[in-house]
Amino acid sequence: MIAIDLTGRRALVTGASGGLGRAMAEALAEAGAQVAVHYRKGSEAAEAVVAGIRARGGKAQAFGADIADPQAVAALFTAVEAAFGGIDILVNNAGIDGVRAPVGDDDPRRWEQVLAVDLIGPYSCARQALPHLVKAGKGVIINITSVHEFIPWEGYSAYTSAKAGLSMFTKTLAQETADKGIRVVAVAPGAIQTPINETVWSDPDALKDLDHKISMGRLGRPEEIASVIAFLASDLASYITGTTLAVDGGMLIYPDFRAGG
Fold first, then answer.
1. pTM for the predicted model, two decimal places
2. Contact at 8 Å (CB) between 241 and 184?
3. Which of 39, 123, 156, 159 is catalytic?
4. Which pairs from 76-81 meet CB under 8 Å and 24+ separation?
5. How far is CA 24 from CA 13, 114, 225, in A?
6. Is 59 inside any structural domain?
7. What's residue 243's pLDDT?
8. What is the average pLDDT score of the chain?
9. So what's the pLDDT on residue 261?
10. CATH number at residue 97
11. Is 239 in the active site?
């Protein structure tokens, strides 16, 4: 079996204080990377992630910043540089869904806030990471999109627009940096069981409806996304760039069509 080895690599995972981000930070640390665990506010959850990683012999440190603020992002990278001496892996995971509202009934300020976090945030982080990666002549940027970069979601036009935009940003940045030894990829999770969607999976009827939309008939687990992130960050994925890998249990193959078109 070929092991994922990230020994000596330095990774920053945004939105890593819980849910998918926590699982990603833990997986990268388990593979040997030194991990910057980012949080937006309230350091307690992030420090718990750090403590758990350290208890298992890994290396991690918590860093706070508002990803929607480019100046805060610049300060974040300055802090990570001072603590780690650089960065090799960036995982743009931090994101928000926003408040459900059809266009016309929505608040434009809330719409813009979703884009500020989900699209401008990853752009700002990538822009700060690039000088480090270009200087090293290698590195990986992983952007977390969603199956909703492909599938419309009524009431969440800001979220779907941001994720679709992040997908094209991934491809364009990969094109711009491929000859510099940098890989840029996206991962599109499907329905993953995390605290943020507990209202769905804790409701038997809602869970049954959601499972029906997934070909494999179940929600994914955070570690099933995290293992893909560790793989893509490693040299095992050295020929993968400029694409989105959907990790969705077959949601994008539309299980309703098993009965015919």
1. 0.96
2. yes
3. 159
4. 76/12, 76/38, 76/125, 76/128, 77/12, 77/125, 77/128, 77/129, 80/10, 80/12, 80/36, 81/132
5. 7, 22, 7
6. yes
7. 98
8. 95
9. 65
10. 3.40.50.720
11. no
